[in-house]
Amino acid sequence: MTDVSGVDPRTATRLPVVTEATTDDQVDRIAEQSALASAALEAMGRVGRAALLDAMADAVERHRTRLVETAALETGFTTAKLEAELTRAAYQLRFFADVARDGSYLEATIDRAGSTPMGPQPDLRRLLVPIGPVAVFGASNFPFAFSVLGGDTASALAAGNPVVLKAHDSHPATSKLSFDVLTDAAASAPHGTIAIVYGRAAGCRLVAHPAIRAVGFTGSLSGGKALLDIINRRADPIPFYGELSSLNPVIITPDAAVERSESIGKQLVTSFTLGAGQLCTKPGVVLVPDTVDGDRVVAAVRSALSEVAAAPLLNERIFDSYRTQTRDLRTHANLTLLVDPADELGSAGFTVEPMVFETGVANLDNNVLTEIFGPLTVLVRYPADDVEAAVQTVLRSIPHSLTATIQHGSAEDSLLARLTEILRPTAGRIVYNGFPTGVAVAWAQTHGGPWPSTNSLHTSVGATAIRRFLRPVTFQNAPESVLPKELRDGYGGVARRLDGVLMLPG
């Protein structure tokens, strides 16, 4: 048996053993039990599952102190960052409880029998139903909000699907404690509603198991592709919902630089160093006008950067990758390092210094603009009289992203409209006069984008995240006794479309 333990990234010392890696036989039993739980979990109904999610949120709040302390030890994140993330995790659970109670996600649709220009039509009633057990992979950079307690778990359970969690190797103790908290809160739920496995081999076995009907994954592009390869080898390939890679371009227009150079520079540094730059929405490339006001933005970045302390990265793999990639950038002929960082060889653990590189839009190549996980961004200077061409040049040099941001001036409406149209095909969320770090959990939120940022049309944050774990079923000429209650005549508890007309609840 292989022991599973984390590493304190601040010191690179191994932490106490948490558990043992899950064996193949154990994975199989867990997956099979999840399949057995599916019908009973669906039978709990929307209101029952909502109560379950609320109970889980309450349990998270009760165990807040211990959860934060455990995660701080395994991730090196500050207590403030983890407190905020845990608040978000509890909020997500309650949010999806509300989504379940609301019921509009079911897309209940009824077309009654009758005559049509095509001839007689049968009675047709359509509803979205649970897809079945979901494998959820915890993310290294969000030990709460995108891991055991995260949005994939909350949305899958709200939809009526059992969840089997793959604990992330970087924070196994946090994962186990989080799982224990959920398990205690779910004592009245069907056995197998939630389960957890440990170890990379167990995660691979889980994805290949025929009982698993979908996979939620937040992580590296290479990791996502590896899981896709497993799925494609299955006898029955299943949906894979991956959040994978993103550079998140930021455009600072000429007028924005005139009006807010100092505040933009300071906020940019706060954004790309948040969580030691280990956020999927970190701005990795920033277009800055090649003007005196653009120089002021750069000066503000340089000044703010001097006040940011070195911080540990999550694990040795991320640390080694950051060191290798930044070393390559430092030797690039067309890049200038804005502030020479201190010698990292003397730093403890996986600690690194933040870095900002500067270049011109004419000097871009594929080796300059690439996702680097960690506190780094690249400033690209462009001629102020040709911002649209510069944006298009950068977009041709980078993959599509989760977000795109426009820092604009107060009198640039025409330019703003054109830039929005240029950016819209490349990102799932467009941010105006803000920064992309920070993803609100809301009904209108989109946290997804064109490949390779994600491989799904459905967001992983916000109410429509539930859509990933549902499939449509149409009942034709069905006796009312076999219909879900939301499709029965006279039911008014959810929004429904009746003969093409939207009918609100009540």
Could you explain how this protein is built, in words?
The protein is of the alpha/beta class. The chain has 13 helices and 23 strands. The protein has helices spanning 24-43, 45-62, 64-75, 79-102, 151-159, 172-185, 200-208, 221-233, 254-273, 292-305, 316-330, 387-397, 413-423; strands spanning 3-8, 13-20, 109-111, 114-116, 119-121, 124-130, 134-137, 163-166, 194-197, 214-218, 240-243, 250-252, 285-289, 311-312, 336-337, 351-352, 355-360, 376-382, 401-407, 427-432, 470-476, 496-498, 501-503. The chain has a 7-stranded mixed beta sheet with strand order 15-17-18-13-12-19-20, with helices on both faces. A 5-stranded mixed beta sheet has the order 21-6-3-22-23, with no helix packed on it. A hairpin with a 4-residue loop joins strand 1 (3-8) and strand 2. Helix 2 runs antiparallel to helix 4 (79-102), helix 3 packs across helix 4 and helix 4 (79-102) runs parallel beside helix 5. The longest helix is centred in the N-terminal third of the chain and has 24 residues, at 79-102. The N and C termini lie far apart (57 Å). The relative contact order is 0.14. The model has no long low-confidence stretch (mean pLDDT 95).
